[in-house]
Predict the 3D structure of the following.
Amino acid sequence: MPGGFNQIDSGDIRIYHTGDTPSRAYELVSVVNGESCQRQFNGEPASDNKAIQALRVDAVRFKAHAVIKTQCFSLKPKADSICYSEVSCVGRAIRWRD
């Protein structure tokens, strides 16, 4: 979302993991998720960092300022999965109250 005033970039979204909470007032916007998938056998493995970046991108859709109660899970691929390894992260997108 380049060029706009008050536009939120995924790099601006702070991630608060479970147990870590913001000190300022906020409102819940939506539940968001992000995934990382290793699609090639010799490819880079799925990672929490990539899944969290995808989580940030999802939070941008809701114009969130942060994501709280973030948890990531390594998923065991099923036989019909296109991923050799997979990480999924979920959290709650929030906006600061002014």
Remarks:
- Confidence is low (pLDDT under 50) at residues 1-5.
- Residues 80 and 93 are 31 Å apart (CA to CA).
